[in-house]
Structures are given as structure tokens and as C-alpha cells.
């Protein structure tokens, strides 16, 4: 069942998709399996979510567009690997995280092109929101592949917006891993506010994202949450940090990365969110896009390595939320999709669109507990950056 949000007007919503986006494939056994986006789009289609959006194609990003973030010599190195499939450890391709494969440049450029097109369609006013679930490759650095990411599509999309005259772009990253590549791209650029909520770098790759990483006058914001943090603590931290900063910054456009590897079932990380907690976060970001950025919202996917139970359901909820017609959590998954899951993966598919949780949190403004690890993380972030934005770090 799809519910209308009533007064939450969204205008047109564009979902960028091409079956070739699944060609970003590091091979059998790699955690970033393209079946996750295939199953997402199939679930969204079978539930009727795609009937309420415009599904549009995309073209590969040009070298000039990719070079808005990445070094030219790096692009040429990736293209060389793409032709032969031979590793080049100098550019980070050929490692366990980032295996070399024939076509890696073309696959990466297409994902980047989809995120640029999402940004362009929103910036041009052709759509209020635009979604690229295949995107969100936030670890890639200017001259190095990293963390399953070759070209940093959200950073390129943001750089493209700046090249078109945008003066204030906010980026919120809810992946369980620190959005280090996007932060690095704009660390000294006060036009871009990057906010990342992630598992503490003390326990998880990439080992960055401490509260003291504040960029140009507080333009980088990091909330480093303790392993084991669940829905209530995560949502408490989100609401204690993200809405006040977005309201103060006043972005012209909001770009968000929605890695769903914060889920309790994810095999690569240690946070304990439920699908319902993640869905609640999507709704909060949707509201903030309307409240702080005039409704201009560019949405990407990201990490997520529980390929059947989590990613397809999470990102179907994400697309549905962006459309203004959220899927009611108790909705059964369609039989046609469950059959596809079994055929493609051999796994037992989930039966409904919920984990059966009802996320709630206590507001940080009502007081905090210095003995609580989540509250300490919140206070560390607020003390590091809130005064730089003219905000009170304490409740």
C-alpha cells in the first residue's frame, strides 16, 4: 500500500535509471554486488512506486565533468585499467576493496553522470527531487579509488552545482561509514556544508570523521556514533545536529547520501538501526529539504551489503518517500518480487516492508546524560562546530 503525504507537496520527482548502471561490478563475492540495485528497482516497480515518479535515463559523465573533482592523471589511469582489466595500484585499482575490471571507467562514469543529471534536473527546476540509487560512492578521492568507490559521484554533482552558480550546497551523509571523499573535496570551501553521521572511526573504515574535523569555519560536521547505536540513539543524534545546522546554513539545494549499512543485519558494520529507523530518517530529510532548501533535493544511494533483506526495501522506501507517497510499512512484498529474489540469489526474501519496529527518541533539548556514549558524541560535535555557526552547543 502506498500512502499519500497529503500536504507535503513534492512537485515532479525524477528517478535516474539505466540497466547499464548494474555494470559497476567488482566481481563474484565482492560485497558491493549490483544485484542490490537491480532488486531495489524491481521492488519499487512491483509495488507501484515507480508509477508515481518519472523514470529517466542518463549519460556517462564527461572527462571534464569528472575532473571537477578528480585529477586528470587519475582519470587517465582508470581509463587504462578499463581497457585491459590489469591492476594499477597507483590509482587504487587492483586491491581487494577495489578490484580492477574491464569497463570500470565506463561503469563509474555512468553512475557519475546519473548523479550529475539528478543535480541538473533539480537545479534547472525540471524536478523538485531527483534520485540515483546507484550513486553515493562517497569514498573516492581526487587521485585514488577507495572503499569500493572509483569516481565520487556526489562530490562531482556538488562541484557541478557550484560551477553553475550555486553558492550554498548542503550535503548530509547517513551511511555507516564516514563520507570522507566528499568532505575532502570541499573541506576548505565554505560554500559546501558536509554533515556525516557514521560509526566511530575508532571501530570502522575509513578511520576518519572525528568531531574535530571541522573544515572551513565549521563547514565539515562529523557525528561519530558508538558501535551498537540503534534507532533511538541515532535519531536523537540526527535531530540534535542536522536540523539546527541546515536551518542556519540555509542551503539552496540539499544533497543526501543514503547508505543503508547502518542496519543491524549489515555484515560490514556495527550500528543497529532497523529498516523502520532508516525510513524515519528519510522522512526527516525530506521535510528538511522543503523547510531549508526550497524543496530542492538530490538523493543518492550508498553502502549497504545485506543485499536481500535490507537494501531493496530501504531504497524502495527512499524512492517512495521522495515521491511524496510513502509505502505503508506493513505492506507485503509482492509475490513477483519474491520469486525474482529467489531466482537471482537463492535466498529467502522478506515478506513485508517493515522490521516491525516503531522508532522513537528523546529530544536532546530536554537534557543530556554525560555518562551516555551517544550523548557524549552529540556534545563533542556540537561543541566543535555549533559556535562556528553562531549556535549554542548545549541544550
From TrEMBL:
Record carries keyword Transmembrane: no
Ranges where the Histone deacetylase domain occurs: 30-320
Record keywords, A-Z: Acetoin catabolism
Pathway it works in: Ketone degradation; acetoin degradation
Gene3D superfamilies: Histone deacetylase domain
Origin: domain of life: Bacteria
Family note: Belongs to the histone deacetylase family.
Protein name from the UniProt record: Acetoin utilization protein AcuC
Organism: Microtetraspora malaysiensis
Organism lineage: Bacteria, Bacillati, Actinomycetota, Actinomycetes, Streptosporangiales
Amino acid at each position: 500500500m502506498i500512502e499519500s503525504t497529503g500536504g507535503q507537496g513534492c512537485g515532479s520527482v525524477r528517478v535516474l535509471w539505466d540497466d547499464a548502471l548494474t555494470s559497476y561490478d567488482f566481481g563474484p563475492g565482492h560485497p558491493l554486488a549490483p544485484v542490490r540495485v537491480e532488486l531495489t528497482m524491481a521492488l519499487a516497480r512491483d509495488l507501484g512506486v515507480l508509477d508515481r515518479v518519472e523514470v529517466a535515463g542518463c549519460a556517462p559523465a564527461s572527462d571534464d565533468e569528472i575532473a571537477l573533482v578528480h585529477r586528470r592523471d587519475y582519470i587517465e589511469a582508470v581509463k587504462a585499467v578499463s581497457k585491459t582489466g590489469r591492476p594499477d595500484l597507483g590509482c587504487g585499482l587492483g586491491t581487494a576493496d577495489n578490484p580492477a575490471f574491464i569497463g570500470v571507467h565506463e561503469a563509474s562514469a555512468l553512475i557519475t553522470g546519473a548523479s550529475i543529471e539528478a543535480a541538473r534536473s533539480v537545479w534547472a527546476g525540471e524536478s523538485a527531487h531527483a534520485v540515483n540509487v546507484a550513486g553515493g560512492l562517497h569514498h573516492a578521492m581526487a587521485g585514488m579509488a577507495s572503499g569500493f568507490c572509483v569516481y565520487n559521484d556526489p562530490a562531482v554533482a556538488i562541484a557541478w552545482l557550484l560551477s553553475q552558480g550555486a553558492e550554498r550546497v548542503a550535503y548530509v551523509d547517513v551511511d555507516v561509514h564516514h563520507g570522507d571523499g566528499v568532505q575532502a573535496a570541499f573541506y576548505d570551501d565554505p560554500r559546501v556544508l558536509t554533515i556525516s553521521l557514521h560509526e566511530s572511526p575508532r571501530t570502522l573504515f575509513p578511520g576518519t570523521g572525528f568531531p574535530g574535523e571541522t573544515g572551513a569555519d565549521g563547514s565539515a560536521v562529523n557525528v561519530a556514533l558508538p558501535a551498537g547505536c540503534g534507532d533511538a540513539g541515532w535519531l536523537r543524534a540526527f535531530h540534535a545536529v542536522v536540523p539546527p545546522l541546515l536551518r542556519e546554513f540555509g542551503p539552496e539545494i540539499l544533497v543526501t547520501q543514503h547508505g543503508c549499512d547502518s542496519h543491524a543485519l549489515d555484515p560490514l558494520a556495527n550500528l543497529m538501526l532497523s529498516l523502520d529507523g532508516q525510513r524515519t530518517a528519510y522522512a526527516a530529510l525530506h521535510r528538511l529539504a522543503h523547510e531549508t532548501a526550497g524543496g530542492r533535493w538530490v538523493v543518492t544511494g550508498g553502502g549497504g551489503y545485506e543485499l536481500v533483506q535490507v537494501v531493496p526495501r530501504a531504497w524502495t522506501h527512499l524512492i517512495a518517500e521522495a515521491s511524496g507517497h510513502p509505502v505503508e510499512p506493513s505492506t507485503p512484498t509482492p509475490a513477483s518480487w519474491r520469486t525474482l529474489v529467489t531466482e537471482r540469489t537463492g535466498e529467502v526474501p522478506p515478506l513485508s516492508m517493515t522490521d516491525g519496529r516503531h522508532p522513537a527518541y528523546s529530544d536532546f533539548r530536554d537534557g543530556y546524560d554525560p555518562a551516555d556514549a551517544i550523548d557524549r558524541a552529540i556534545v563533542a560535535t556540537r561543541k566543535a562546530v555549533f559556535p562556528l555557526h553562531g549556535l549554542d552547543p548545549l541544550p
